[in-house]
Amino acid sequence: MYERFMKRAIELAKKGLGRVNPNPPVGAVVVKEGRIISEGFHPLFLVGPHAERVAIESAKRKGEDLTGTTLVVTLEPCDHHGKTPPCTDLIIESGIKKVVIGMRDPNPVSGSGVEKLKKHGIEVVEGVLEEEVKKLCEFFITYVTENRPFIALKYASTLDGKIADAEGNSKWITQDLRHKAHEMRNVYSAVLVGARTVLKDDPRLTCRLKGGRNPTRVILDRRGILSGGSYRVFEDNARVI
User: Fold this and answer.
1) pTM reported for the whole predicted model
2) Spelled out in words, what is the top-level CATH class assigned to the domain 2-146?
3) Which residues are bridge partners to 70 per DSSP?
4) Is 146 noted as a catalytic residue in this protein?
5) Which of 3, 52, 167, 183 is catalytic?
């Protein structure tokens, strides 16, 4: 019943991927009489309100009466004062009668929104497209539950398991993989390589997607073999460690 609205909320949340870390990407839509009347997503970690607030305030600016409406949001609304006031308070004040969430917030600091909403007579529906939402929030879930960064290993090999020929020469195997590398750089906070990768490939390690963001570039060089050299990884507008 709510899947199509949650799918739209997930699409909106993806706009914040790579820009809200270590917070989760969140999307929200307000539904009235079976149609979406407003939308919102969390755009940046240090700037802007949460997705729920964006969607609710957008509806109000349009002159919509939110009494009896439904809010569909990927993550349980927060119930604590952080950079912004609790989203639960705004939801309660707005007259929304039902909140549909994809997953509960695993962060114990803010994960009590469902209980507060129910206490104020708001119906809460949980677990809509939950696995898709968890996949969307895997960076955040790992950070909160395991106290470590989410790490992905990217490499390309031939069918027989080789990444280079006998002389150490290698090249891109497919254009699809090349595009995937830039998609990952756009959403991950950092990309890490060893000094010999820089020596051999002289990579930029930047994101060349239109509108993409550059990750921090981390180079492991304990022997200082790159000192004094001129490499493309030290160019462009991206942080290097």
Assistant:
1) 0.87
2) alpha beta
3) 31, 98
4) no
5) 52
